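Table S2 (continued). Query chain:
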Amino acid sequence: MKKLNESFIEVKKSKFIGYIYSIESIDEVAKIISNLKEEHKKARHIVYAYKVGGQEKNYSDKEPSGTTRGLLDLIHYKNLDNTLIVVIRYFGGTLLGAGPLTRTYTKVVSMLV
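Corresponding output:
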């Protein structure tokens, strides 16, 4: 596993930190997510998407339905494989709503590649 890049955005006091990793297997996903949860204990949400060969997954960590779809969409759009994208959200106290939240997740992941 290798971290390739990271990005940051702040919207209405919520902080979004994006990471992109090159991975060889799905087993690495659990290790990376576990390490990030340990490192970012106060984060409200840790969402991610990965694609390894024919296997892919999008995990929204209790965010509203569809708001994190942009992570997997970016993987497909850029034709990436063996890739994990993670976004860590620190809630700033203001609900963003589904539209702005979706745009924010899409923006933070688009900054990664």
